[in-house]
Specification:
Strand content: 15-25%
Distance between the termini: 35 Å
CATH topology of the largest domain: Vanillyl-alcohol Oxidase, Chain A, domain 3
Protein name: FAD-binding domain-containing protein
Radius of gyration: 23 Å
Pfam families: FAD_binding_4
GO molecular function: FAD binding; oxidoreductase activity
Keywords: FAD, Flavoprotein, Oxidoreductase, Signal
Family: Belongs to the oxygen-dependent FAD-linked oxidoreductase family.
Number of domains: 3
Shape: globular
Helix content: 25-40%
Strand order of the largest sheet: 17-14-16-15-19-20-18-21
Structural class: alpha+beta
Largest sheet: 8 strands, antiparallel
Number of strands: 21
CATH architecture of the largest domain: 3-Layer(aba) Sandwich
Bound molecules: flavin-adenine dinucleotide, 2-acetamido-2-deoxy-beta-D-glucopyranose
Length: about 500
């Protein structure tokens, strides 16, 4: 069994036909070992996974077979079988909310759908939640609600613990406790395999133990991998469990305001005043967004202003609330009811992102660039653009150090910033390429204008990035080199680079 993986990496660029045969072999072997946890096209379990993706781009891919592990050891067995079969590629799926094709699904490979790993347990002192990596945030919040504690996780409950946390994770609580990943106290991970030094032998210095073993990764054990996983996405292993630090939490105050587009100046001024405050209110969780419907050619402003204490009309949002609105509402509710959003119908989706230094004037310019780029673009079936702005206060970034740091490369010293999430949704898959092109054009124009004004930050938030962006490289040269070192240490034959092709890859971004 020893050096099989060296061989598989060397010949990973095999022909399509060879790959097909290998996937057949691979799925047959998996089926032999894991029985009904493996499903094939036409079976209900296969269907259930395929129908659970958020975007049509992901749902449209057809894996050779799908594994639904029910215990972490199923993942270990599967990874060692897959790794030993040349040409057998795989994808790792949480709640399937990454929109880009191939990030958590694969054509003609093996998809590992983690959603069955969804156990939750709270430590007796209520300080740590252990959660299976495939759970949704809604499951987490529902479990924690009766204990009056919560964790920093997704705002929409349908999103997965796995993807959101490994990419950073912006929570309503982030200004108070940092990125979701900053609150991970321990990961349970299936790395590609375990190896140990056996001195110098004829072939190599390392002996591969092909039966993968689950390992804990935390501040005192494999602390390099621990830091790498906080932003490193699926480049290092399959995470099977997250242990998350909790916070005391009661009800929240939730407001929404819809404004006419003619009110954009006061809205963006209010946003900028909140974002640029040196005393950013750590209970404020704000999203300001422009929506554009290509069929009606109508823009509207839609804002979500959450305050993570049960205080109606908190002063921090007073300036925003005073802008004349088409509709507005404010109420007190639990995180569970706030996160319990209705699923969207099957649509194509695109995400793209950039980070800026606060400036209301520049946000007005962003709007003009968007309008001039998007105004006359109206693909078959219509399309909606949703351009959202979210604060990235420096106080939030300072929480990274409490658990030994992350790799995101955004520093509190840079001051407060805000993140733009440019997203699009449209029904007609024939428009996918052209939508991507238009989004790229808008993004690049905005970025170059921001750069010229000294307002562009290098950070590209991975969970919001388009497939054509390079978020890992945006973490900065030191972090990127660190990630590559950790990858070669824990995954020396680059299984998670070459055989897990989906998502943002160190190997790919490194080539740029
Ligand atoms: C409706 C919606 C709301 C959102 N809200 C927020 C928000 O409030 N805050 C925020 O920060 N982001 C938010 N996002 C972005 C979100 O963080 C990303 O889409 C994230 O990738 C979703 O994670 P997932 O597990 O559901 O997705 P998946 O598509 O299943 O996985 C995403 C990526 O993570 C990898 N991955 C997943 N699980 C594992 C694992 N266990 N081990 C190794 N790799 C794994 C996958 O291989 C894939 O590349 C939102 C997205 C959507 C669509
Ligand atoms: C799988 O889903 C498709 C539609 O998405 C449906 O036509 C088919 O009957 C389903 N098959 C099974 C086995 O559930
Ligand atoms: C956890 O996963 C199992 C297996 O997929 C599923 O039956 C169960 O409903 C899930 N639990 C919750 C709380 O969603
Ligand atoms: C949670 O808070 C509510 C309201 O304050 C209280 O009634 C309840 O006893 C608390 N539950 C626990 C487990 O502390
Ligand atoms: C870190 O991992 C080690 C090794 O498995 C384990 O003994 C220790 O309890 C872990 N620490 C935490 C905080 O989980
Ligand atoms: C966009 O506008 C068209 C025309 O007014 C309308 O029919 C459609 O429902 C709108 N789409 C969305 C998603 O609001
Ligand atoms: C908020 O909505 C109410 C009606 O629901 C309206 O009377 C009020 O003017 C609105 N506030 C602003 C600032 O427009
Ligand atoms: C939280 O708000 C809900 C109303 O949405 C209310 O029913 C519940 O009692 C509140 N809980 C606490 C602890 O105040
Ligand atoms: C958007 O651009 C169109 C076409 O140039 C213009 O007519 C329209 O007024 C612009 N919209 C806004 C809100 O500025």
């Amino acid at each position: 069994m020893k050096f099989i993986w060296t061989v598989s990496v060397l010949s990973w660029a095999s022909t399509g036909r060879a790959v097909e045969l290998e996937v057949g072999t691979c799925c047959a072997r998996l089926h032999q070992e894991l029985g009904t946890k493996i499903s094939f096209l036409g079976q209900p379990a296969y269907n259930a996974t395929e129908n659970s993706y958020w975007s049509l781009q992901e749902a449209g891919l057809k894996p050779g077979c799908i594994l639904r592990p029910s215990v972490p050891q199923d993942v270990s067995r599967a990874v060692s079988i897959i790794a030993a079969i040349d040409g057998c590629n795989f994808a790792i799926k949480g709640q399937g909310h990454a929109p880009a094709a191939g990030f958590a699904n694969i054509d003609g490979g093996v998809t590992i759908d983690m959603t069955g790993l969804n156990t939750t347990s709270l430590s007796p002192d209520r300080s740590v939640l252990s959660v299976g990596a495939g759970a949704s945030w809604l499951q987490v919040y529902q479990y924690l609600d009766p204990f009056n504690v919560s964790v920093a996780g997704g705002r929409n409950g349908l999103v997965g613990v796995g993807g959101l946390t490994l990419g950073g994770g912006i929570s309503h609580f982030s200004p108070r406790v940092g990125w979701a990943c900053d609150n991970v106290v321990n990961f349970e991970v299936q790395v590609s395999f375990h190896w140990q030094f056996h001195g110098i032998n004829a072939d190599s210095k390392k002996v591969v133990l092909a039966d993968g073993t689950l390992t804990n990764v935390n501040e005192t054990w494999r602390s390099d991998l621990y830091r790498a996983l906080k932003g490193g996405a699926n480049n290092f292993g399959v995470v099977t469990r997250f242990d998350l630090g909790t916070l005391s939490q009661g009800n929240l105050s939730v407001s929404s305001f819809v404004n006419d587009i003619s009110q954009r100046r006061p809205v963006l001024q209010a946003f900028t005043d909140i974002v640029s405050s040196p005393n950013f209110d750590v209970y404020a969780s704000l999203v300001v967004g422009f929506l554009y419907n290509s069929s009606s050619k109508a823009w509207v402003i839609s804002n979500s202003a959450v305050y993570t204490r049960p205080v109606l009309h908190p002063p921090v949002f007073a300036e925003l609330a005073a802008v004349p609105s088409i509709s507005n509402s404010s109420r007190i509710m639990s995180l569970v009811s706030l996160a319990n959003e209705a699923p969207t119908p099957p649509l194509n989706w695109l995400f793209a992102t950039a980070t800026f230094q606060p400036s209301a004037e520049f946000m007005l310019e962003i709007f003009d660039i968007l309008n001039s780029t998007l105004y006359s673009f109206n693909p078959q079936g219509g399309l909606v653009w949703d351009i959202a702005f979210e604060p990235l206060p420096s106080g939030m970034l300072s929480h990274a150090t409490k658990t030994g740091g992350n790799v995101l490369g955004v520093q509190p010293e840079e001051g407060n910033s805000y993140i733009m999430l440019l997203s699009a949704l449209w029904p007609d898959s024939a428009s996918n390429l052209v939508v991507e092109k238009v989004s790229q054009q808008a993004l690049f124009t905005i970025e170059s204008r921001a750069k010229a004004k000294g307002l562009l930050r290098k950070f590209q938030y991975l969970n919001y990035a388009a497939w054509y962006q390079t978020p890992l490289a945006s973490y900065g040269a030191d972090n990127f080199e660190f990630l590559k070192r950790v990858s070669s240490k824990y995954d020396p034959f680059a299984l998670f680079q070459n055989r897990v092709p989906g998502g943002f890859k160190l190997a790919k971004e490194g080539q740029l």
